[in-house]
Design brief:
Layout: E1 14-20, E2 24-31, E3 36-44, H1 49-63, E4 65-72, H2 82-98, E5 102-106, H3 110-118, H4 132-161
Parallel strand pairs: 1-4, 4-5
Antiparallel strand pairs: 1-2, 2-3
Helix pairs in contact: 1-2, 3-4
Length: about 170
């Protein structure tokens, strides 16, 4: 999968999972040794891919990430539509800025799975509909959870491919 840049340092080996949306980017971090993904943050998309790449690069550096796993929004028939092509272009550009390897993971239905895991948004103060801030916070949680699902699927698949070994084969 992805090799740690600091092999032998004793530091946890990590990778970032990314759920790219039109307005937000859900980010998760995965521990390659433990094979576990956890939510990290939800970013607001920048005005350009270059802005997004700088933010992702900073996060990757802070997390000592060895690579990126980006959710690829395939069509239900497995084909790549316009959004998948845009996602690939974005990921290749971000990978170029960060200097990190990029892997793609089929993200079909990840948002729906994330919505089920997160549940319904909180009610408003008087029991009414949620406020705009509550809706935005709920959507951000769903984006982070979708990133977790994408990354966990990749970690699990890598473990299956390698038998019981953790994902550290460098492929």
């Amino acid at each position: 999968m992805i090799r740690d840049r600091d092999e032998g340092s004793g530091a946890p080996r990590r990778v970032l999972g990314i759920d790219l949306g039109e307005r937000r980017i859900g980010v998760a971090v995965g521990d390659l040794d433990a094979g576990v993904a956890t939510p990290l943050t939800t970013l607001t998309r920048g005005r350009s891919i270059a802005q997004d790449a700088l933010v992702i690069s900073r996060l990757a550096s802070e997390q000592r990430a060895a690579g990126l796993v980006v959710g690829l929004p395939l069509d239900m028939d497995g084909g790549e539509g316009k959004q998948a092509i845009r996602t690939r272009e974005w990921a290749v550009a971000v990978g170029g800025v960060t200097g990190l390897p990029v892997r793609f993971r089929d993200e079909r239905l990840s948002s729906e799975r994330a919505e089920r895991r997160v549940g319904l948004p909180a009610r408003g103060r008087s029991g009414g509909p949620p406020t705009a801030a509550q809706r935005d916070g709920h959507r951000a949680r769903i984006d982070r959870e979708a990133a977790v699902l994408i990354l966990q699927d990749e970690l699990d698949a890598t473990v299956r491919e390698n038998g019981s070994q953790r994902p550290d084969d460098g492929s």
